[in-house]
Amino acid sequence: MSSQAVEKRREALGSMCDERARMLQDQLNVSMNHLQALAILVSTFHHSKTPSAIDQKTFARYAERTAFERPLTSGVAYAVKVTHEEREQFERQQGWSIKKMYSSKNKNSPGPGDAASSEIREPAEEYAPVIFAQDAYKHVLSFDMLSGYEDRENILRARASGKGVLTAPFKLLNNRLGVISTYTVYKHDLPPNVREQERIQAAIGYLGGIFDIEALVDKLLHQLAGKQSILVNVYDTTNESPISMYGSNVTGDDMYHVSTLNFGDPSRKHEMHCRFMQQP
Ligand code: WA2
To answer: Which EC class is this protein assigned (predicted)?
Structure first.
């Protein structure tokens, strides 16, 4: 192939990749905006009303009916802050007890908030049990989200920053690979320049969206013409060794293009890598 033809090919790959990256980024952004709106809904109709106007059934139905607004999520869940002092009364009110996420037999990702280490720290100072969940994630109801490493880090970062945050891809309780996006609900409105400590203290709940990357990115890319001809991989490149979020293993050093993705959480980095399926 002439160098001019190679250049043409490279350009075509670059623009196809950028288009896909932009589309994915936009859909994620739209989804995250609606998660934030859902956090405001819970604040308004659960926390600011006595008695609450939302129960599990109402939440699940509303979440299901507005799922089209969150194209990359496969579900949403809401966890509340419960201090150790409040635990007994909370459990009596709910009629169930707060459960830890990973018993030592099914734990997946060891870390500070996880199985072995949390045995020592028991009882925890506070918990974040899920009280509402979309039907597909009913199995997380009553689980303490502070007892799982990725969920814990996400919640702590979300409530200290007041912004939407993302986990790295990890294996969810349903054994699928996913990314969780979290927004915090606060007791009252906070001025934009509020101190971090005040933010943390004012937190009362955590709204999470579950991104089922494999299934949903696939669906998204299939909607595009020319999907057959290009291979797409999405990586979380926050740490030195990138974590694959989407796509199959690729080998060889043939031509590929990297498009950067901005998913709105400045402490996480993502990239899309594209290559042609067929050699010229
Ligand atoms: N939701 C569903 N499945 C999971 C999971 C999760 N977290 N963690 C592991 N498997 C209520 O950030 C707050 C949802 C966490 C939100």
So the answer is: transferase
Amino acid residing at 169: P
Mean pLDDT, residues 214-220 taken together:
82
State how far the Cα of 54 lies from the Cα of 159, in Å rounded to an integer: 22
H/E segment holding residue 249: none
How many Å apart are CA 241 and CA 235, to the nearest integer? 10
CA distances from 92 to 52, 86, 87, 97, 153 (A): 17, 10, 9, 8, 28
Atom of ligand 1 nearest to the CA of 154: 12
Give the position of tokens 């045995």.
Answer: 119
Instruction: Kindly give the distance from the C-alpha atom of residue 279 to the centroid of ligand 1, in angstroms, as a whole number.
Output: 42
Name the 3-class secondary structure at 152: helix
CB 98 within 8 A of CB 82: yes
Pocket lining for ligand 1, CB < 6 angstroms: 77-79, 130, 137, 140, 145, 148, 151, 154-155, 172-173, 180, 182, 206, 208, 210
Q: Are strands 270-276 and 203-211 parallel, antiparallel or unpaired?
A: unpaired
Give the total residue count for the chain. Answer: 280
Q: Which residue has the tokens 């979309």?
A: 134
The fold adopted by the segment(s) 54-215 is Beta-Lactamase (3.30.450)
Q: Is 29 helix (H, G, I), strand (E, B) or coil?
A: helix
What ipTM, to 2 d.p.?
0.99
pLDDT grade for 167, boundaries at 50, 70 and 90: very high
For the chain, percent of residues with pLDDT exceeding 90: 79
- In Å, what is the CA distance from 79 to each residue of 92, 184, 209, 257? 17, 10, 11, 40
> Which has more pLDDT, 4 or 115?
4
